[in-house]
Amino acid sequence: MTQQVISDIFFNNKLFSVCKCITTKEMFDPKDFGLPTPMSPATCLWDGYYCDYEILNNTFYLKNLYIHFIKEGLTSLNQNIPENYMKGPEFCGIQPIFKHSSEYHIFLNNEYKNLNLQLTNVTIPKLVIGCDIYCNDFYHLWKRGYYDYPAAFKYNEVYACSVENGEVKNIINCSEWAKVVRNFVMCNYAGGDIVSWHYCKEKLLESGQFSDCEYLEDLL
What we know:
This protein is of the alpha+beta class.
């Protein structure tokens, strides 16, 4: 399975990667807002769209939407032919930037910028985000499945929180804990040994450094 493109989140005027997101449904689903059904442009984005979200004043927003539409009645075989592209409708008072010809480096053909749509239907029991990547190695340590979120310990700035009906709660700065995990991993597994995140969690707990940290599993 090809690793999927993952949406990002703006927080404190910085762009964060989503490192963990426990939720029972998509944070945003175009069909819930009456948009046409998107078409996947590539195997790295089966959903046919991704988003930039924003946490602002403890509220969860959809900031930007990047989505791929083709004309009705066409199939996935026609998805990357510019003359088959379709401009999306106005959404939240915003007309999309329509990338419809070969002059564009096209991946998703409709971009909605600065939507600033408050997502009051979003509930996420646990969300972990990271910014300012320190190390992009150690991919072999944690493969969590379809979306394969990046490990939070790779980032210098890490936060955990929850979202309830669009209200962001319990924001915790986990940056120092992430640093401890990063140092442990770099010291013990820099040689490229293939190990599981379960094993790393076990060894970190044995070290005594995380007896009071409920977020250890979320950092790996």
